[in-house]
Amino acid sequence: MTVPQPTQEDLNERAAIDRSARYPVMFFFTSAAAWLLFATVMGFVSSLKLRYPGLWDECAYMGYGRLFPVHYNSLVYGWAMQAGIGVMLWLMARLTRSRIANPAALIVAGHIWNAGVALAVIAIWFGAGRSLLLLDFPGWMWPIFAASYALTVVWIIPMFLGRRNTLFYISELYLIGAAVWFPWIFLTANLLINKGAAPVMGAGTNAWYVSNLIYFWMAPIALAVAYYIIPKISGRPIYSYPLAQASFWVLAILAGWTGLSRFMGGPFPAWMPAVSGAATIFILLAIVATVVNLMLTLKGCTKLWEYSPSLRFTVLGMLMLAIYAVLSAMGSTFVFGKNLQFTHFIAGLDTLAFYGFFSMTMFGAFYFIVPRITSAEWPSGARIRSHFWFSTYGIVTMVVAMLVGGIAQGGDLAQWDRSFSVSFVNSNAYMMGRVLAWALITWSNFYFLYQLALMFIGKGRKSAGPTLIHAEPGEVPSARAAAGIH
Amino acid sequence: MNSNNFWKLLGALGLAFALPWLLLVVLPYLDQSGAAPVAYGEGEEIEGGLTAYPDRTLQRHGASDYGREIYAAEGCAYCHTQVVRPTYAGADMWRTGWGGREEDGLARETQPGDYANEGVALLGYQRIGQDLSNVGHRITTREEMHRHLYDPKSFDTDSGMPAYKHLYRPSAMGDGLVPTPKAEALVDYLLSLKKDQPLPKSVLSGN
To answer: Which domain holds residue B158?
Structure first.
């Protein structure tokens, strides 16, 4: 079964949509990429400081307790969320076949968002942080993010209302979900924490916010991309539409319950971590069903993975999502969780979410979208290949070092009759792995940023065929034949 | 037809999320924010004339409220937890001094009331350093606490804690170091961390 070929009219319409998206989406993409560079360098610097605590100890700005939140906030709000917003806008426009009506308003909103991220990073760096993961910025700053998000995402509602199909695309479901869930969790977390009336539940709300940001924003946007790109590139419909719908609703019903399992045995009623753990375990079903559904869609044309950069990054992102779901479920069981909480395992899982599955899928989306909105092809397939392999090695090194290191650290922490610093000394080798991983990731991103900058200034390749990973432009037909598509 | 679908979808998403939002976050938050101190019962003899748990003046020490801001701003909670878990969930109670004054039989797990003096409890992200719930009982003098901040390795050569030298200035007399007001406040906060106030029997029994 194949999907029908587009007519010339369809192609013209798509080109018009892409043109309308060009400036706002490229604005979000390039700002996101600049933050990505900053965030990965800070990831490297903060990991180095953790491994060698004596470095720069005269300097107030170079403590791990400041570098790490600077790294994390710029990674999530600077890179991940801006990349996600850009993808959300373009994808919604394409799916609903509507042009982006207010590019100028979107660019204004994007500037507000960037100003917010910059202020947050400066505030944390200059000593106004709050030691609350991803809510480190001072309490008065949340309206900046809220306003900018509202000004951006409100435009997808008229797009959605004006659409012509009666059936929901799965990607549309996920995009609408992400659009609605983020303001809800963001406002709840900020208002409750700023009120400061219930200290322990404030900390619980913070944990809930981080987990919901992963399941209710990062995962839906990544899945919307995968449900779009995989059928598009393979030229096949989704293997099972009902399964995709069911998985969506399982996630929608359960994800709100997650988060509190970070504090097993903490000063909470015991049911809270238990319920959160159970929800995380059940979400595994939804995620595995989704990833299997996507892989079955690709069945028989997996060779395409060798050629298409978008597909390759997206598939890697989806595999990482599956790994994330499995390890999160494992960490949510009491047996593993009690030994792994507060260790590098949990921190590694967070990085696997924000950098691993989310960023890989976003790279897939960038490689698909940017040529369409700039009407040029990526300059070099070889550089895409380098980006892919250095990213993959980087994130795999990261995850292995953090997860294995976390398990070892959990064991050391449980040995109460040995000196506490044993757990630190024994983690040193793993932390060296983390330093190396960020170095690889930073290096990989230079390839990505260099190409993106070329595309941005209009130095992309002008060609009829797309840039593939393993073929010169002239060989495109043979590459397509090898991949089993005609 | 289409727009109708959209509002239906939003309604369904809202319903699905409203349940955990209310039950896991908002209602427990409101419940906890109204919590009043619990008076000790008849016949419970508590040293120091304490009448109720939590006693917020007991949780303060000098400029500890400002010191808490320094603790948060320096990101201490990224490496230090303030959670002592029950033995079913970890070995925290077995570590010397983590649960409080063992010699007086007062060591215990942390309870929600222990954080009553803070807006948000800094429970912590990772445990790269020691748990600080009861550090005020383990390190009892200002001088020792300052030395811990200025040169952690002088206590344990394997310590992974960075030195917070920027919180100290050379003395005007040229003979040593002077703590900045930030360092003094941070020390006040750390000395205030004593989460082992005896619990009234009614709290222990859960009523």
So the answer is: 63-207
Which residues in A lie closer than 8 A to residue B109 (C-beta atoms)? 265, 267
Residues of B in contact with A128 (CB under 8 A): 73
Whichever domain contains B180, its CATH number is 1.10.760.10
Is B200 contained in some domain?
yes
Q: At what angle do helices A8-51 and A64-73 cross, to 10 degrees?
A: 180
Look at residue A464 and tell me whether its pLDDT is greater than 80. Answer: no
Q: How would residue A466 be classed by pLDDT, with cut points 50, 70 and 90?
A: confident
Residue B148's closest CA among A368, B140, B51, B33? B140
**CATH code for position A278:** 1.20.210.10
**pLDDT of B1 higher than 90:** no
Top residue of B1, B13, B76 to mutate, by most chain A CBs within 10 Å, is: B13
Note the helical H segments in A255-380.
271-298, 309-332, 334-340, 344-351, 358-374
Asked if residue A144 is part of any domain, the answer here is yes
Predicted ipTM of the assembly = 0.95
pLDDT in tens, A188-235: 999 999 999 999 999 999 999 999 999 999 999 999 999 999 999 888
Domain holding A422, by residue range, is: 26-482
Could you tell me if residue B37 is inside a domain? no
Domain count, chain A: 1
Helix (H) or strand (E) holding B169: strand B168-170
- Domain-located, residue A13: no
